[in-house]
Amino acid sequence: MRKIVFVVVLVMFFLVMRAFISQYDLIEKAKRVENPVSAVKYYERALLFYVPFSPFNKEAIEGILDRCKTLKESEHKLYCYETLRSSLYQIRNFYIPYKYEIKTLNPLIAELKTEEMIKWKYNSLSEKDRQSIYNYHMEILKYDGSPSMLWSLVSVFSLCGWIVSLIFIIFKGLTTPINKKNLFAGLAGYFIFFGLWLLGLWMA
Amino acid sequence: MLIRHTALFKLVDLNARLNNLKRAGLLPALAFIVFVYIFSLPPILSTGDGGELITASYGLGTPHPSGYPLYVQLGKFISFLPLGNIGIRVELLSVFFSIFTLYLVYFTVYKASDRNSMGYSSAVFSVILLAFSYSFFGQSIVAKFYTQNAFFVMLLIFSGIHIVINGYDRRIQYFASLILGLTLSGHHTGFMMIVPLFILYLFYLREFLKNLPLSILFFISGFSVNLYLYLRGLKENLFSMIPVSDWNSFLNVFLRKTYGTSSSVDLPAYGFVDFSGYFYAFKNYMYLIQKNFTFFSIPFFILGLIWLFKKSKKLFIFILLSFMVYSIFLAKLTFSVPEPDSHTLYVTGHQYFIPSFAIYCVIIGLGIYFIYTFFEKFNLELLKKTVPVLAILFPLLMIFDRLTDQHQGSNYVPYSHTKEIFTSLPVASIYMTYGDNHAFQAWYLKLVGRYREDICHITLDDYRTMLWALQGCKPYKFYRGLFPEFFGGDLIDLAEKKRYYSIIAISEKHPLYNVVESQPYFYSFIYLPKVSDKKDFMEFFNKRMNTIESFLNYEDCLTHRTDDSFTLQLCRFSLIGYISIAKANETPEGKEIVFDQAISYGDWTAPFKIKVKVGYENEKYINIYYAVKKYNDLNKFYLYEGKK
Fold first, then answer.
1. Is A112 within a domain?
2. Would an 8 Å CB–CB cutoff place B476 in contact with chain A?
3. Which residues in B lie closer than 8 A to residue A123 (C-beta atoms)?
4. Which of B32, B147, B271, B585 is the most exposed place for a label (fewest CB within 10 A)?
């Protein structure tokens, strides 16, 4: 068990190290480039190396938003806002960091997309279609098809739980002679976790 | 008397300290391996199955058959880690399983030696050799299930060795049964360990049969992880390659029936027909050994086998049989073509044989230990002290190769290539992919990254049909409003509106060939009705290319530093982007260059021909084209180098 903890700690330590170094490096690059599209790309990558409490997270978000303001073309603006929104979704874990930004970005993105669709001369759309198109875009942007956070956690923890319970039954319960206390404890753990696992998979 | 005892205790204490010091070598070695692996992980996602497995893990969905339920659930577990992005978190699974596999390699060598400091050095040698071998390294840093498979195989081997060395223990039999059940929720080749284990348990037949009923129960418990496929298939979820809803569809996915003769049921039978295929299997497997460990490793391998034979006949039979199953037998099933091409080497040679490489390194480690015993026997003190150090340092040299061929720490290509395609498309476009490499990354970006959700991504299963998978266009109720033409079946209308894009250039084999033509458009192709006005298209094309020119990104394809075959292919695919931009910026007085090539889609190719007038205005794009083409030469792939 100590060895597993050692490996986990080691992996986490090096990942934090890599993420932090990369954030610093990418933000420096973003500051140096003049092309706003390239700058957005570097800020995006810095944000994708998300480290909790790192000052670079906020700097990357602000960097992207600042560059979005400088872009003239609406397609470029769309790229910029979409990039920030997508990055925030990609760094989500059991919570979505900086979730409030997504709420602000959704209407901006829907508006830009609606404008683009109406402007697209091959579409033969007019002003009267604006509201319905905007609504379609908003519905898609708001819809979250990912599984329930709570039930996903229940199911994956329970999976580990019932596998560990089985190993416990084998090595601590089925000794010679049989250790009844451990065997019953293991069986109880197995049935509880197995039930929770099934429930979690169904509900998630 | 007392003084003599104290001196003796001091001597024993000193010896123990020295041993501890030597043993301390494993931890720095593992720490160093973890460090290199972590810094070599692709920053967002890896090519091939990576995008699909990350998406399935995040969405608790079902990837391609056999569904890999254990991997997907562990992927979901690790995706909760509040660090980095979802892609890199799922990639971490491979690092964990890789390190645990290396740990088991260490224990196996150590246990099969005489468990002294020399056995320890040999075990560390095996760990380093395996860790920095080409394919093991490559699989340790991508989002794939092959290191998980190797871990289970090594766990089963370790359980067998434990039985041989420590004597029969029913608990080990139960444990092995549980693990065998679990292997069926991963890559099915792990289950092949049942053969060597069964042979081993024949030596303990009476006890084995006595404990068989409970073993079957533990096996079923392990196997029950597959219930996941059924439960998640019953519900509408974020992503399912092939949903499981009843017994037949479960068997279809679990037994990989969609792969025809390569299904998990039909494939093993191939090992018992056409025995001449074993010649090619042996030849091809030896090629992999040469590329991963060089032929210098073979004498150590033979010495290792001799050591095992000397140590215990049972051990010898068990380990040799395990090795044969995962090397020659598996090669006969999957890798016995006369001349493997680049694709076979990448998909099969680079992935399937990871367990056999782990066993190979175990045997090599024992070969090294066997040599140490000679030093001991003939009292060669100097060699005894220096060889272990050299033995550990020697495989470390391979790290320099790995940092130039397998290092993916700066490989953004799978992410950026897909993102730039999405960015280049007009709002509410259809984007059609064919083949895994483009589709899997698009699923990641669309379903996990939620980038450009206005795009409806459809996947073509067969180039000759119009049968699509719509994983990237769900839920339909929302997309119907944006794509009435598509959901109404009027693709021509969509093409007329210039909102139909694909990575496929149309050839005569394509069902739309008579009504639609394809034109290069940035990194993809636009589909247009055959009767469309050419002048109008050129006007549209020039305007669009100028608008999206700033999204052109060639840096990633010139700095990825990996020889990963799929990365090279993506970069070569992006070449049409540089030609497209050059075409949009051509001047009448430029010198005409014809780019006439073919794009390969599996069994056939689609033509790609474009004339560009190259002058001062667009010369730089042509230079980028040649630079990217040169940097991403497909022959760069290390396993393919020797074949050219």
1. yes
2. no
3. 497, 499
4. B32
Q: What is the pLDDT of residues A12-49, one digit of tens each?
A: 999 999 999 999 999 999 999 999 999 999 999 999 99
Enter the pTM of the model: 0.94
For chain A, say whether B350 makes contact (Cβ under 8 Å): no
Residues A128 and A35 reside in one and the same domain: yes
Chain B from 86 to 115: CB within 8 A of any A CB: 86-88, 92, 95-96, 99-100, 103
Residue pair A173/B174 in contact (Cβ under 8 Å)? The answer is: no
Same domain, A111 and A128: yes
- Could you give the number of structural domains in chain A? 2
* Residue A20 sits in the same domain as residue A51: yes
Predicted interface score ipTM higher than 0.85: yes
Q: What is the dihedral of CA A87, A89, A95, A101, to 10 degrees?
A: 70
Reduce the DSSP state of residue A92 to 3 states and report it. coil
Instruction: Count H helices and E strands in chain A, helices first.
Output: 8, 0
Structure tokens at B550: 């700033």
Amino acid present at B470: L
- Across the interface, do A120 and B497 touch by the CB < 8 Å criterion? yes
Interval B94-113: pLDDT, tens: 999 999 999 999 999 999 99
User: Rounded to whole angstroms, how far apart are CA atoms B606 and A178?
Assistant: 68
Residue with tokens 């080749």: B189
- Which residue range is the domain that position B199 belongs to? 25-262+283-405
Q: Are residues A129 and A186 in the same domain?
A: no
For residue B278, being part of any structural domain is answered with no
* Mean pLDDT for all residues in chain B: 91
Q: Which residue of chain A comes nearest to B220, CA vs CA?
A: A166
Among candidate residues B228, B182, B139, B239, the one with its CA nearest the CA of residue B457: B239
Last residue of a domain, one of B339, B372, B405: B405
pLDDT of residue B542: 93
Q: Which residue has the tokens 């483009």?
A: B438
Same domain, A75 and A119: yes
Q: Which residues of A172-189 are buried (b: 16+ CB within 10 A; e: fewer)?
A: ebbeeeeeeebbebbeeb
Do B581 and B484 belong together in one domain? Answer: yes
Using CA atoms, how far residue A173 sits from A110, B169, B182, B210, B248, in Å, is: 59, 14, 21, 18, 38
Host domain of residue A136: 15-142
